[in-house]
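Most newcomers find our protein records easier to grasp once they have seen one. Sequence and backbone structure share a record, each on its own labelled line. Nothing more is needed to start thinking about how sequence determines fold. As an example, a complete record with its sequence and its structure tokens follows.
=====
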Amino acid sequence: MSHVYPFRFTRRYRLAALAFDVTPESARVTVEDDRLEVRFGSWRLESPLANVTSVQMTGPYSFIKTAGPPRLSLVDRGLTFATNGECGVCVAFRKPLPAIEPTGRLRHPGVTVTVADVTGLADLLMSQVEVLASDSWV
């Protein structure tokens, strides 16, 4: 089963993202049976759901620090794919993943996404993390 979560764009963020070819048509999060995929314009991040260790809702965000292209945290190398400043879902990974540079050397321990249905995505991912964690104890 596939669940698709479009990003929620506010006017200011939409204008900032346009220069980077990030549009409502090119930005989404897809959760399938065993996989998470984030598309943000030409950027892409993929992970097995078994690699997800935690999920939390976060926000608000500073426009200057989050608008436009993907943003890299200099503190922990996490990524932010933001299309609004109100709230999003932060997903942490067991094994850091490549996403924003072509060589794949830079890896990210987490990603924040500002989808339209923050609660729905967070609940779905948390339920998957709980199921996978309980399966590992069997």
